[in-house]
Amino acid sequence: MAALALACVSIAIWSSLALLNSRVNALPPFLAVGVALCVGGLAGLVRAREWRVGAKTLAVGIGGIFGYHAMLFAAFRMAPAVEVNLINYLWPLLIVMLSPVFLRGFRLGPRHVAGALLGLSGAALIVSGGGLGLRAVFIPGYLLAAAAALVWASYSLLTKRLPPFPTGAVGAFCLVSGILSLALYGLERLAAPGMAAPALGGRDWLFLVLLGFGPMGGAFYAWDAALKRGDPRVIGSLSYLTPLLSTLNLVAFGGKRLSLGSGIAMSLIVAGAVVGSFDVLRAAWSAARRRPGRAA
Question: Which of 233, 263, 239 has the alpha carbon at shortest distance from 109?
Answer without folding.
Answer: 233
